Amino acid sequence: MGKAGLQHKNTSKLPPVLPYLKINMEKEVVTIKLDLDDIGYLYNTSTRSFYYDQADRFECQEEIKNPFDKDDGNYMYWMESPTSALLFQKVLKGYGHITFLLADLADENVGYVVMTNYSGNWEEICQE
Predict the structure, then answer these.
(1) N or C: where does the chain have the smaller number of CB atoms within 10 Å of the terminal CB?
(2) How many CB atoms lie within 10 A of CB 91?
(3) Residue among 79, 24, 71 nearest 51 (CA)
(4) pLDDT confidence of residue 6
(5) What is the DSSP string of 16-42?
(6) Residues pairing with 29 in the sheet
(7) What whole-number distance in Å separates Cα of residue 21 and Cα of residue 53?
């Protein structure tokens, strides 16, 4: 009992497992369900691609050749952490988009950049 004889009972009920998180310990696999609306929380800046205009500014972070041969029609998304970049790429690839991971060496704080053919809301912005 609290002060003056009042008692507080916690009536909140949390679900036993969050609906978007599935953990299978036998296979050491974690499944997280994200859609394209969710990835907006993973990046902090985006722009039309200018990779080929400033290629020396970026460092490839993957052991594959850049799948894009031009900037036109592609976009770049900046993230602060490699974890955000990994999730961002996984979601986009799950929806059939092409991605390529870069590091932006423009300043001391290395930013992670995903170059992709995913336009996000750029199509809406360009029509305005």
Answers:
(1) C
(2) 20
(3) 71
(4) 46
(5) SS-TTEEEETTTTEEEE---TTGGGGT
(6) 24
(7) 40
